[in-house]
Amino acid sequence: MSFQLTILPGDHVVAVSEDQTLLDAAADAGLLLPHSCRDGVCGACKGKILDGTVDYGKHGPQTLTDEEKAAGLALFCCATARSDLTIECRTVSRADDIPVKKLPCRVQEMTLAAPDVMILKVKLPATETFAFRAGQYIDFLLAGGKRRSFSIANAPAGADHLELHIRQVPDGFFTSQVFSTMKVRDILRFEGPLGSFFLREDSDKPIVLLAGGTGFAPIKGIVEHAIASGITRPMTLYWGARDRAGLYLHDMAAAWAQAHAWFKFVPVLSDNIPSEPWTGRRGLVHQAVMDDLPDLAGHQVYACGAPIMIDAARQDFTRHCALPDDAFFADAFTYALESQA
Ligand SMILES: Cc1cc2nc3c(=O)[nH]c(=O)nc-3n(C[C@H](O)[C@H](O)[C@H](O)COP(=O)(O)OP(=O)(O)OC[C@H]3O[C@@H](n4cnc5c(N)ncnc54)[C@H](O)[C@@H]3O)c2cc1C
Q1: Predicted confidence (pLDDT) per residue in 291-308, tens digit
Q2: Which atom belonging to ligand 1 lies closest to the Cα atom of 218?
Q3: Is 174's C-beta closer than 6 angstroms to any atom of ligand 1?
Q4: Ligand 1 atom index nearest CA of 167
Q5: Which of 35, 42, 135, 258 has its CA 20 to 30 A from that of 329?
Q6: Which CATH code, of 3.20.20.60, 3.30.450.20, 2.60.120.10, 3.40.50.80, is assigned to 207-337?
Q7: CATH code 3.10.20.30 region(s) in the chain
């Protein structure tokens, strides 16, 4: 059975079948709605049902509460239509023609960048093109239908490989393999590119890049893309980690700041380890942004890292620093819903 789906802003009308998520129906019609995990966990796709009824689908109970459902909210990555619908989300943009593919790849290089961070380079098949936008992510496709998401850390131009920065999760199904049994020349399968976290190039607003831990990965892709494309919009990177080892590519970010007048780098450590020499900033990384830039009205923010950091930044920047809601772009590093049982 098929229904009519009207999407605001813009009054786009598309068809949606009853077993298709609203996000997928929009994508099939060439429309990109804000989203990230596509698993009902991160909340990036949350929007309003203005008219009609939905099945809310499988989602994290904290990500969409009963109160939010009663207030007309739904997660468009897992909600399906049960009638004709009118929905509203923060932004609707035209998806470009970059196809989402399922491809094999071969492990090319593994570098331990910190005790719990592996930089993994995987070689793309020579016979296939794989296009993506800087900042997007892929899902590794694993045994038993499991999927694990990782952001692409390199820029797209001329890429014959993908770089991923993988933090080891204690007892994690996939990341434990990366740190124990995985070796160069292993074959993996992935699906991508995914997500709406990428640089909006139609704006000239100055940018705050906010990274927590391996949230640096997609930010690196975006900065390398800016450098390669001659984009010179002012960008300030605030990169937070617990300790100095967590800033595993500190010198690379510092070198960008040396080489490009439009780029600034502010590293921030949250733990105070007396034995560790550190003359830089301390505290919560999103607080450092607020201390330096109490008025974010004219900025765009691109934030990536732990969900708690993303939530705090979104709330504090929009409430206390006048950042417009539609100028905050984020990928929260949530984990798969099936591993939360
Ligand atoms: C869009 C997106 C992009 C991502 N990009 C990256 C990236 O570039 N680099 C990166 O390191 N991670 C990234 N993540 C997070 C990453 O996908 C998860 O940490 C990963 O799936 C863990 O897989 P696992 O099989 O090892 O752990 P699982 O077996 O899935 O998890 C085992 C248990 O560990 C805990 N856990 C798992 N992951 C996390 C987490 N991230 N934080 C806190 N607790 C956790 C949970 O309690 C879970 O039950 C991203 C997530 C999303 C949604």
Answers
A1: 999 999 999 999 999 999
A2: 8
A3: yes
A4: 11
A5: 258
A6: 3.40.50.80
A7: 2-94
Q: Whose CA is nearest to atom 28 of ligand 1?
A: 172
Two structure tokens written together for 132: 């993506």
Q: Is 163 in the pocket of ligand 1 (CB under 6 A)?
A: no
Q: Does the domain at residues 101-194 carry the CATH identifier 2.40.30.10?
A: yes
Pocket probe for ligand 1: among 100, 335, 337, the residue whose CB has the most ligand atoms within 8 Å is 335
The radius of gyration of the chain's CA atoms, rounded to the nearest angstrom, is: 20
CA distance 87 to 85: 6
Question: What's the chain's average pLDDT?
Answer: 94
Ligand 1 pocket member 331 (CB < 6 A): yes
Helix, strand or coil, per DSSP, at residue 2: strand
* Spacing of C-alpha 177 from chain mean position: 23
Query: How many A from CA of 333 to the centre of ligand 1?
Result: 6
CATH class, domain 2-94, is alpha beta
In the chain, the N- to C-terminal Cα span, in Å, equals 32
Question: Is 233 within 8 Å of 225 (Cβ atoms)?
Answer: no
The boundaries of every CATH 2.40.30.10 domain in the chain are 101-194
Write out pLDDT tens, residues 108-150: 999 999 999 999 999 999 988 899 999 999 999 999 999 999 9
